[in-house]
């Protein structure tokens, strides 16, 4: 039974059109959205540009991205050499854990094939809620990582095979003082929200009456990140803290780039659903991932809603995962006057807009980014979805769409999605 269910889910990852037609979504996204196709075509994440102009643009973008990441690493006390020792890039410029491949499957065939190629098993995890195994392999120095991924995808098309990409928080960071206060007039009523993010200081003032269920999914010391604190604090200002339960999965690792790897995110998502998280907040973004496509689809079949940041890479950037997945709810950021944030990524993956510019965490702390727009939407949904339930999840999405205030072009648009959500 486990094999049949998981194999069916992995096969569905290659059938994007069918998923958009049948899976519970906020509303039908335009037909041009085909996020899953990009994850299942064998060389989608390894491709090369078609023209010299595209090659030049890609090279420029990669250079700028490397410079940006080097600056951020330096600010955290790391050198560019530290970055390149821990990570490498694919041909599209996406960062991944150096020399690592992730294989997600329900049977042993794909795993045996990986070992036959000389890949060395690093970590093996059974996702008990979904019913698949996720194994992380390392390629020996000198081995052709790209060729290994190609060979595995050709031989095992029903397995999800990825580089171990990293996903980054979509906020400008925040330091939450101990005096953080819960805002007046939050929503009343019990709610449970899972947060897939970094460490949360559960002793901070904003969380004095919040119930926590938490687990770490990364090795080594906790990341010196306040991103998870800020996301949780906004949620505690949306739902009355005394009635809020947070299921906190710590997936952000300490290192030169503040980020979470695909294999750790997969474990966090599976665990959160198993703990009763019907609404799962993911304020992280990254490149197309077969593994996340399989898992988010499986969660949607269980009646979970994944609320994801729309991205901070700019209006013309590609739609990031997991927000680009048709089962996810993508949230963009606006300011207090309803104006779109200049760095918010636009596209068919945007379902709703919420306040994400100069969001008050405390009298002395404000944050900006699509990361900080997602918790409000998660809180609104959690009031209507106390735990995984397919019927309630579909109803909650419909009610949320009715609540949204249309902004921009009439109807759904790539800037605001279905419109603005707020507590009013």
Give structural attributes.
424 residues, alpha/beta, seven-stranded antiparallel beta sheet, seven-stranded parallel beta sheet, 21% strand
Describe the structure.
The protein has twelve helices and 16 strands. It is of the alpha/beta class. α8 packs across α11 and α9 packs parallel to α10 (290-302). The longest helix is centred in the N-terminal third of the chain and has 24 residues, at 52-75. The radius of gyration is 20 Å and the shape is globular. The termini are far apart. Mean pLDDT is 84; it is low at 13-25, 30-58 and 174-184.
Which helices and strands appear, and what pairs or packs with what?
Elements: H1 2-12, H2 16-22, H3 37-40, H4 52-75, H5 80-86, E1 87-89, E2 95-105, H6 109-116, E3 120-127, E4 132-138, H7 145-155, E5 160-169, E6 191-197, E7 211-216, H8 227-238, E8 244-250, E9 260-261, H9 262-274, E10 279-282, E11 284-285, H10 290-302, E12 305-309, E13 329-334, E14 350-355, E15 359-362, E16 365-367, H11 374-384, H12 390-403
Parallel strand pairs: 6-8, 6-10, 7-8, 10-12, 12-13, 13-14
Antiparallel strand pairs: 1-2, 2-4, 2-5, 3-4, 5-9, 5-11, 15-16
Helix pairs in contact: 8-11, 9-10
